[in-house]
Design brief:
Length: 391
Amino acid sequence: MTSSDRQSAAITELLATLVGFETVSSATNLPLVDWVEDYCRGHGAAVERVVDATGQKAALWITVGPADRPGYVLSGHSDVVPVEGQDWTHPPFRLTEIDGRLYGRGTSDMKGFLAVCLALLPEMAAAPLARPLHLAISYDEEIGCLGVRPLIAHLRQRGVTPLGCFVGEPTGMAVVIGHKGKYGAKATFRGLACHSALAPTGVNAVEYAARFIDRVRLTAEGLARDGARDDLYDVPHTTGLTALVQGGTALNIVPDRCTVGFEFRAIAADDPRALAESVLAYARDVLVPEMQARDPACGLTVEPVIDYPGLDIAPDAPLVTLAKRLAGRNAHAKVSYGTEAGLFQSLGDIPSVVIGPGDIARAHKADEYVETAELADCAGFLRRLIAESCA
């Protein structure tokens, strides 16, 4: 067996182990964390665990090399999206290899990247590192990039800011220098119920919610028509939409409640939270007074759901130049989906790029897979990073 074959077998074995942990966000990730911690300690790495308030989730900060100086972070999340309602032809939590493809939940997003990092950990430990390499493993990324925030706070307390962070989301090993920020919330309108035969005496929460939805739509259309542009994105402007509407109980009852779930996803020129506040201001200043003029008990409740910053790093930044050299790429790109990279940059003051094996188009769907060739490309990137960290 060649060294390349041994490397591929090691990565596949590790990926099979990681996929076997059903780390959907509704469940604990501690069995995976326990296993990874034991594995890393067994190869001489220093491991720190950051536990959440419930004690059921934890992030890991793993260090190989001298911890008293700045190095590079390899970042990945341990959680995966659910599989219920999807038509899988392969067991989602058991790795299946067919013709160079490795099927299983999380193979692309993003346990494939973690498997490569862990497979190369022995090489990191054996190398004469002049700068450390860190592996950051978070939780609950899929429901709002939650678990990486206390992890970043933990590493800031250490007093040594890393030189850069590579977030291994599936980009096909393309160097991604930007992603959109996102703010999403639920707005619940409280009206006054009555028999539909007496509709004018009630306050129809669904109809007021419809006016709010139209405001979101008009704002989004204005951004698409007249807003700022960044042509590196597949959708080159900020977007907004309503995705969830729940209200009413029966056709003959004027509804007294309607909840609207909406979001704005913004390029760097726009602030998604400010856009959300602008449409909410319309609801508070125009719609709510109308409702309360008919019944003072009517009103509006807003529940923030998701809030993470975008990523925007200069194309000529040193970390971008390094990533391109390690990946053997000249080009760079931006993506519309969110990652933890924006948080590493905004909360941790750590320059960040997104680069990893797999394809985001395969994520979150049945028969998710990563190709063994993609994992090999990622391994080459990390091996060159190890050499860079020895210089």
